[in-house]
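User: Quick sanity check before I run a bigger batch. Here is a single chain. Can you write out its predicted 3D structure?
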Amino acid sequence: MPTPRAAFPYDYARVEQVVAEYVPQWRGMRFDAVVAIARGGLPAALIASTALDLPLHALSYERRTRKVSWFTAQVPPAGARVLLVEDIAGRGTTLSDSIDFLAAAGYAFKVFTLAYDAESRVRPDFGVEIPPGLRAWFPWERESVTPAYDATRNLPRQPADAYASWAIDLDGILLPDLSPGLYDTDLAATLARRDLLLPCEVLPARDLSRLTIITGRPEQDRARTQGWLRRHGFHGRLVMRDETRHSAGQTAEHKAQAIMDGCHTHFIESDMAQALEIARRVQVVRVYWWNGQTALSVYASHAAELGQ
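Assistant: Done. Predicted structure follows.
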């Protein structure tokens, strides 16, 4: 059984940044066109073709038959010098077969991938080498990092959302949140009161019985938290906070790291500030703020123009 690898996330901002780093060099190489391998190569190829003011074409690849064909109706002229773009140089044959296809058609080319590593079948001419123990994670293949997707051996037979991995916050979602002031006033009484709470009447519309729960409660509360969950039919994995990391920022950091470590693709959070911070830290993940009635998608990135 292969050792699971942690995710190395790319959001669209990182994709644009990686492409931009090579654009000055590519301008001097006099390419005639950019060729993407559809689907994964299209986002980076679109950015590259726009920056270089070049035509964009694409190849199609059938994994089961290893057939390469043109995805676009128009193709580069014979003998053209092209930049071949893919999201990752993996262990499979997509990139190598596409290279063979272009070579057989008489094109001159260089290869750019957003990511590759020591185990890649092809080492591209341009791209980012992923550190050992990590795997590239792209927003257009969000579910590709989950164990359910891994089990398909890169040949999924169901829609992408069938391989998603959801996790949820605890307080404010499964049971009502108590005021922080109550814990400061009488911790023992407040914990006892919390243990008697019933699940919220309105819950997110998912099967919550087996979902991973990532909570800001400290590890020392595991026994009583696990007891409440089991009494009310929630049997998913429980991830709790190191009790030394208790500030709001540290709690959000703890949750973001747990999401990454668990290769979760979707997370529901009850606190708006934490939802924003989690979304900022793990931008490939779908983060939702649960307001007690509905879930709202949350997106956050650093606004550099407003920074200090």
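The longest strand covers residues 81-89.

User: Great, the batch can go ahead then.
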